[in-house]
User: What shape does this take?
Amino acid sequence: MNNKVAVYRKEHFNAAHRLFNPAWEESKNDSVFGLCNNPNFHGHNYDIIVKVVGEPDPETGFVIDLKYLSTIIKENVLKRFDHKNLNLDTEAFKNINPTAENIAIVIYKILREKIDVKFDLQVRLYETERNFVEYPASL
Amino acid sequence: MVFLTRLEHFNAAHKLYNPAWTIEKNEDVFGPCANENWHGHNFDLYVTIKGEIDAGTGFLFDAKKLSILMKEHVVKKLDHKNLNMDVDFLKGKICSTEVLAIEIWNQLEPQLPQHVQLHCIKLFETQRIYVEYFGN
Assistant: This one.
């Protein structure tokens, strides 16, 4: 039995995107991605929940200062993606389809570099209230 | 008199932009919402109707029928669309949530049967930003 605790910070951003595979014909993109393939884009309010797991620091009682975690997310994730077109305005999705799955992986990789390796990390991304993904899949 | 509300959702891209202004003025007034490549939202649309209860059914209006009207005349035209580019009833209009609520009213109002009055269009752009329009 350890003293590991999971702490969470929720943030959100709004963005436009389009799901399509440039290697496929338009008809195949339409058939696979349906309405999400609209060439004029559509958009979402994304909610991100970042989970950090570690032992509370004996001096502060914190696993990680959630204000600090919030700042890390805002500086490194929201600044890049909020009020942006994920396909057109971001380096991260120049060559990657901005599905919820891929967005979660990208956000995880960005944050993993900023958060001490002694912590486990997981990203849950809500594309809508009813569609959400988690990466890594399990902790 | 009773009120009945139905909730539907749609996702769309838009930007806030006044073509009569310079890019600088648009950016100054609308900030990140003026991003020329668009951004987007999950919109929640609450439509409230009012009227008297039908003695035969106990309904003001069949909520399923209200849903069908909302989907047919509003959601189908807006969902997974670019509000500035793809929507006939928004052509030439600034796609703010306020304007969108009024235009949704204008789409739905003529579709309701005579004994039912449209009371309110309540449109959430985010969980924390919404507008209400009561007609006039």
User: Anything to note?
Assistant: The first helix of chain B runs from residue 23 to 30.
